[in-house]
Please model this.
Amino acid sequence: MQGYSNIEAPNKWLIYEAWYEQTFGSDLSILAGLHDMNSEFYVSDYASLFLNSSFGIGPDLTGNVPASIFPKAALGIRVKFNPTEQTYIQAAFYDGDSSTRTFKKDEGKLWIIEAGIHEDTRAYEIGCWQYTAKKTFSNQTSANDYGLYAIAEQDLVKLAEDKIISGFVQLGYAPESRNEIYNYMGAGLHMHGLVPNHVEDDIGLAIAQAKFHAASNAEKVAETAIELTYRLLVTPLIAIQPSMQWIRHAGGDSTAPLVKAGLLRFEVSL
Model:
């Protein structure tokens, strides 16, 4: 359920994002168009190092309802207000089905609101979402599904000016009675500049756990993914990132064997 590659996508060409943003002074902005919700909502800077999809945005949202995220963003409108330089509150709504990219009544909408504090060495975020379309789960049809989430991240140890160990925690919740994944927890360490002569490299170790709804005829357990990754900056334009992941109880199946996944990602910045 927690995809081990956060860039897995169909083999096709499409317009991913296309939006316009208007600012009003330094405190208020409005954005409209095809917009990736996860570029601004439910995102941790330190967790973004990892390749498992859960460290990008929690499966308590994406595993339960359609969301405007990679690889196909939906139409939406986002409003953001900064009361101070370090604090913000933002809200948005998106088309409930990104595959059509047209607002239709039966597709519903995904509403999301988030508030947070972002400082140099720490960040805290809380948010909630609501999906208005009808959905059927466990033989029950309901509308207005919802969820809550929180993120905390901060520097933990500063060994030198460019050698920093940081940590992050992600928490997500959705009602178990109407969702496949009702609880999510992610946590990890982000280590920057620890390798001698490689002050721009990053090492990461993290764990992500998604808890499943227990159906009446099949007891499900939590799926747990552990990832160890190292991002090597070869040149200012090229990076190589190997990742090793261990996934226990894949898909919530208590009898599933331990999954081992190795990835090697190449990154070119132009």
